[in-house]
């Protein structure tokens, strides 16, 4: 019978009983069919790696499997001892050969990642400053049916360049045996090596048919050409909203609530006595932090607003920051849930990220709901977000690059402020307990759950993955040329992981 | 130890706010949409027939829909009101002193109205739609913005493709009041001459001379963009919107799921399947879609059983969007209106008083829905042919966006079961066709009753409830 549907037990998704090939995708907008190679372009110390890592973190968090391939790291694997900038001199033929092979090795790994490892986006992080190099990458992508999107960072402000060098270059493995002054001098000469042959992207003429964004002067200006699809449009939007101004993000939960004390989840109760004490402590803490222009955001639930009220500062209420909706389990204790809905209780422990409460939400839903909050956090400077346990876990996972698997178990105790400061390529986190006792609401992974999620379970998109470890395996044994085309010599033995967008027909039976 | 202020929950929107002496103290600002402190003045720039008015109107419609009070001020309109009869392009000749005087007056009159809208009438964004092709004119406007405490954002449309310009002229200029007594060829010729009048003095936004201005330059109908100094959230949203819209012809089909079991019983919300008639509708929909012969149709549903069942009958791939789910009626889920009146008469009355802002206890409001649906609208703008199978309240929100309806009108738009609305962009708006697929269904539309007082008797509350089992 057509139109007969059944609801998956874990994610509460309606699917036809007779699995016909054209299964729906229970996600948001269909992201993209062809995988995409993002190609970074720019002189050294222009923020390419910064943007690569940040973008990758964002894309993984919203569920698009993404990975960075940093050619410099391939080079460091091959050339064990970095001598000096002369390695990068355009006349150094030996070095040029090595560098080209590193690029090819990285591209081979890109191909593997996108074709066989379930990757959706690969970020090819290198200078790519010549047309010749970019044409090579374009050819590679064409052979493999990958879309290409260029991100060029152009910056001539010497103070920005110097500051970048200080922030991330001086501590590079390349300069581990150098003094700061030596390193700085060498790096400036390294940049000069590239400058000579630098051919910026030219969307008015030579590159008019390429999809690209040129980021000028750290985001003051952007030139965008031929955005092809949804994901490129999101990437552009993201790049246009991020900034590098120093600032701090504070995350905390509301003060202990009446329901917390009773062990009840959800609901809309007010603060307990200790919760109110916490808000006063929070007020004092913020005064001591002496912040310029702090924005304060709360949810629309009473407990976060009560907490904010004690700060005696203006605050904005966001419905999107409301706690995860526990549907039919709202306001129950875990014991009551176990008794009334034993199957739901067990399912949640099996896969806490994907599990959706009946008529409620899942962590996966939360991520989708919170994306505009993340985008606005990127735009802002100093912000304090007073929210809830599950919400805070999602936000924290974004900043600390945690996977979907880890996210629902991140520790976000009551009465503890997490202070996040962007530094180098990541985020420093300080945890400050404000010395007001509260109940513990954290539940560890159950024994059942520790066995790991059912590998046969269907995945959707919107699966935060932590950005994968960069692939450093050198694929070079000698200084011979290898081509990066789809040669048959590539190993095809790697098992294909289930890409998060495509539903695996055969596995659906395990849902019910 | 000073206690935090006591909170009270606003009965309509269910927003918690502090109060003292029994009255709400501070108007807490619930972030529904981007709240700007300074009003924003958007200044269009470009030769005639470059899509400035098209962009102005579309952008205004979008901003109003997401809740940012916006209005466009078209200087050409002011000119038409002042100079009753348009004679020829000679009015626009750069040495026509009389013409220049009038045109300057019109610009000034429009700016006065901008000031009234932004500084006195609670407007947040004003779109100043004129050619603004000289740096001098733009400086005047920028100064005006500064004096009044507005942020200024320029939107320039640059296009040299003669086919695009010709198409624009055909779409929107030939039907202009200016050319009401002209034949098409005459009108086109005159308009081309009009464009020439501006060309000599046209100073495009320059990357050096204008480097401190905030602007977006749109090239070749969206092939590429230059974005400079985006200052705040609203400008960032405007840029994102402008970068997602396109002008490729296409159609958007909106319809609800087939009649559901709960529809028959007059119950709201829930997650039931289709009734027999609902299933029949699904089949008719499949036939209809087939007959429409649509190229590359995308089909979207919610994650509720009834829309998915409907889509299943089409036999084509579809995508499920949770954000397309029906409005959450909270504690009133699966009730009939009679039951709501019986158990929650106050809520029922409040809803009739302000159906757009009213939030069900533990549920949502239309206002919440709009915010939830914004990504759907954005993706609809990116896409081409799409069929959206959704729900009554959701469909009303989407329809209100396309047809530029106000918050007051939105919750009462008629979206009956078993009826497909076909929307086709044309000129500055949307052509709407309503196609009833000839399968009977209950009526689920409840009009606003006369008496919305909380003390009204039940009969008066229920007088507009449609019939059900």
TrEMBL record, chain A:
Residues 501-512 have a biased composition (Low complexity). This is 6-phosphofructo-2-kinase/fructose-2, 6-bisphosphatase 3 isoform X3. One of its GO terms (biological process) is fructose 2,6-bisphosphate metabolic process. Keywords: ATP-binding, Hydrolase, Kinase, Multifunctional enzyme, Nucleotide-binding, Phosphoprotein, Transferase. It comes from Phascolarctos cinereus (Koala). Residues 27-246 form the 6-phosphofructo-2-kinase domain. The active site is at 254 (tele-phosphohistidine intermediate), 323 (proton donor/acceptor). Substrate binds at residues 253-260, 303. SUPFAM superfamilies: P-loop containing nucleoside triphosphate hydrolases, Phosphoglycerate mutase-like. GO terms for molecular function: 6-phosphofructo-2-kinase activity; ATP binding; fructose-2,6-bisphosphate 2-phosphatase activity. In the C-terminal section; belongs to the phosphoglycerate mutase family. InterPro entries: 6Pfruct_kin, 6Phosfructo_kin, His_Pase_superF_clade-1, His_PPase_superfam, P-loop_NTPase, PG/BPGM_mutase_AS. PROSITE patterns: PG_MUTASE. Residues 441-451 have a biased composition (Basic and acidic residues). GO terms for cellular component: cytosol. Residues 441-512 are annotated as: Disordered. It comes from the Eukaryota.
Automatic annotation (TrEMBL), chain B:
GO terms for biological process: fructose 2,6-bisphosphate metabolic process; fructose metabolic process. GO terms for cellular component: cytosol. Substrate binds at residues 256-263, 306. It holds the Pfam family 6PF2K. Residues 35-249 form the 6-phosphofructo-2-kinase domain. InterPro entries: 6Pfruct_kin (IPR003094), 6Phosfructo_kin (IPR013079), His_Pase_superF_clade-1 (IPR013078), His_PPase_superfam (IPR029033), P-loop_NTPase (IPR027417), PG/BPGM_mutase_AS (IPR001345). Keywords: ATP-binding, Hydrolase, Kinase, Multifunctional enzyme, Nucleotide-binding, Phosphoprotein, Transferase. In the C-terminal section; belongs to the phosphoglycerate mutase family. This is 6-phosphofructo-2-kinase/fructose-2, 6-bisphosphatase 4 isoform X1. The gene is PFKFB4.
